């Protein structure tokens, strides 16, 4: 006898009419027409059951701080950094924790149960680190939260930047971060990459580096990151986030660079919403859009994972915690619109992101944790198109968020009286 059976579910791999049995907080069986008893049964009625969404790149210490101390008038990355520098001295642990927990509530409602957040270590007081460590502990029952020690003002450029980052790691931060393109010189940037990878190797930690978040095609710190990854034996444990300079590099150089990234087994983490908002700000027309070469990276076998990056903070005034919104934008800006492209894009916010974070027990396989999301859509293609309601969000076999299906009541002559808003491409209701 199982604790729960979800019947008649569609899965991301295309299987339909599947039953998912759950026992002891784990997936015990996945098969069609499962004959078994359970304490509870949920009928998915042909809707999509997905593993939870994963955000591999976020800034939870800044989230929901929009307008503090003022708005970003230019909309640029650099003004956002300057604004954060003005806000940082006023931060308190209490306010940081309150905003972060509010965001985590939103994340759960969106089926987002795994987040890697960068935590600014530039202020020697490390108020942000203290707060995010508290948040990590508080949300542990429902969100897996990884923390990155992130020297926002530069590992070398910030006063006491080196010592502050090391103290953050001593306090229990999980991952070594960096921002080489924000150092004073290209040489300092390269040196910071080498130093930070060495620290990670010595401490047995992973690396997640803001890398080349710029329109400058000569910002090539990803090349150094690949080399240092191999030098220190960090393959599979390193992420290069943003990589926006690659959109401006010449094709010959990229033909050399992508194999280096693949050799180093670096995870590439673009952030579609933020990258197209912040990049190309100095262009007139033609205007660059800032996304790295997602299609080419995927074709080379590189693990590509999409991050949300920001929600209502000095860099981005929008955002909803919805990874389907991130993927929806990626489809447009990468022009990856085929059925197979969209399936690959869906992987970028689920299984690929889980791989980038090194998550164990993730995914729809027997023996894995019963962390699931039921969406008001039939398949991943419709989920990406509609960004539908998360009808059920489940953690270890327990429902932690639930909403009713969205149904429109219609008053149209000769037409049905209602419409399931998870409709299919023909415009007919998804189910009778």
Number of strands: 17
Q: Taking all residues together, what is the mean pLDDT?
A: 96
**Helicity range:** 25-40%
* Straight-line distance between termini: 31 Å
* CATH architectural category of the largest domain: Alpha-Beta Barrel
- The overall number of domains is 2
Shape from CA axes?
globular
Low-confidence stretches: 428-432
* Order of strands in the sheet with most strands: 6-7-8-9-10-11-12
Approximate strand percentage: 15-25%
CATH class of the largest domain: Alpha Beta
Largest sheet: 7 strands, parallel
Summarize the helix and strand pattern as letters: EEEEEEHHEHEHEHEHEHEHHHHHEHEEEE
What is the CATH T-level topology of the largest domain? TIM Barrel
Task: Give the number of helices.
Answer: 13
Q: Mind telling me the CATH superfamily name of the largest domain? A: Metal-dependent hydrolases
Cα-atom Rg, whole angstroms? 22 Å
From the helix content, strand content and strand pairing, which structural class follows?
alpha/beta
Please characterize this protein's 3D structure:
There is one protein chain. The chain has 432 residues and is of the alpha/beta class. It has 2 domains: 2-51 and 363-420, Urease, subunit C, domain 1, CATH 2.30.40; 53-357, TIM Barrel (Alpha-Beta Barrel), CATH 3.20.20. Helix content is 33%, strand content 21%. The protein is built from 13 helices and 17 strands. The protein has helices at residues 77-87, 93-109, 127-139, 161-171, 186-203, 221-231, 251-263, 272-278, 294-299, 323-334, 339-347, 351-357, 380-386, and strands spanning 2-9, 18-23, 26-32, 38-43, 48-50, 53-58, 112-120, 144-150, 175-178, 206-211, 238-242, 267-269, 372-375, 390-395, 398-402, 407-409, 418-420. The strands form 4 sheets. It has a 7-stranded parallel β-sheet, sandwiched between helices. It has a 4-stranded mixed β-sheet with strand order 3-2-1-4, with no helix packed on it. Strand 2 (18-23) and strand 3 (26-32) form a beta hairpin. Helix 2 packs parallel to helix 3 (127-139) and helix 6 runs parallel beside helix 7 (251-263). The longest helix is centred in the middle third of the chain and has 18 residues, at 186-203. The chain is globular, with a radius of gyration of 22 Å. The two termini are 31 Å apart. Pfam families: Amidohydro_3 (PF07969).
């Amino acid at each position: 006898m199982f604790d729960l059976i979800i019947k008649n579910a569609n899965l991301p791999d295309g299987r339909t009419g599947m039953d998912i049995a759950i026992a002891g907080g784990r997936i015990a069986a996945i098969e069609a027409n499962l004959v078994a008893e359970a304490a509870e049964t949920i009928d998915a009625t042909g809707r999509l059951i997905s593993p939870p969404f994963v955000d591999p790149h976020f800034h939870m210490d800044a989230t929901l701080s929009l307008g503090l101390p003022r708005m970003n008038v230019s909309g640029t990355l650099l003004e956002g950094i300057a604004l954060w520098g003005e806000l940082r001295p006023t931060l308190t642990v209490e306010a940081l924790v309150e905003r972060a927990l509010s965001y985590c509530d939103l994340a759960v409602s969106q089926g987002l149960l795994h987040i890697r957040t960068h935590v600014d270590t530039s202020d020697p007081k490390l108020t942000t680190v203290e707060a995010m460590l508290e948040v990590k502990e508080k949300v542990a029952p429902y969100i897996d939260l990884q923390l990155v020690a992130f020297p926002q003002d530069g590992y070398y450029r910030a006063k006491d930047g080196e010592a502050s980052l090391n103290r953050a790691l001593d306090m229990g931060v999980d991952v070594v971060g960096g921002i080489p393109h924000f150092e004073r010189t290209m040489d300092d940037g390269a040196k910071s990459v080498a130093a930070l990878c060495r620290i990670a190797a010595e401490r047995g930690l992973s690396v997640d580096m803001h890398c080349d978040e710029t329109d400058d095609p000569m910002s090539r710190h990803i090349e150094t990151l690949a080399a240092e990854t191999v030098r220190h034996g960090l393959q599979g444990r390193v992420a290069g986030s943003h990589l926006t300079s690659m959109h401006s590099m010449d094709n010959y150089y990229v033909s050399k660079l992508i194999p280096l990234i693949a050799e180093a087994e670096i995870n590439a983490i673009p952030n579609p919403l933020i990258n197209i908002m912040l990049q190309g700000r100095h262009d007139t027309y033609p205007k660059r859009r800032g996304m790295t070469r997602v299609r080419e990276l995927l074709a080379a076998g590189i693990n590509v994972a999409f991050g949300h990056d920001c929600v209502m903070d000095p860099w981005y005034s929008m955002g909803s915690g919805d990874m389907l919104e991130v993927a929806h934008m990626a489809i447009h800006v990468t022009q990856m619109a085929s059925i197979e492209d969209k399936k690959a894009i869906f992987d970028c916010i689920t299984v690929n992101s889980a791989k980038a974070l090194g998550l164990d027990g993730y995914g729809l396989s027997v023996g894995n944790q019963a962390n699931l999301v039921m969406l008001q859509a039939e398949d991943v293609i419709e989920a990406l198109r509609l960004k539908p309601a998360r009808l059920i969000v489940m953690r270890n076999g327990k429902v932690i968020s639930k909403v009713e299906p969205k149904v429109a009541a219609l008053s149209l002559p000769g037409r049905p009286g209602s419409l399931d808003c998870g409709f299919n491409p023909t415009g007919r209701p998804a189910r009778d």
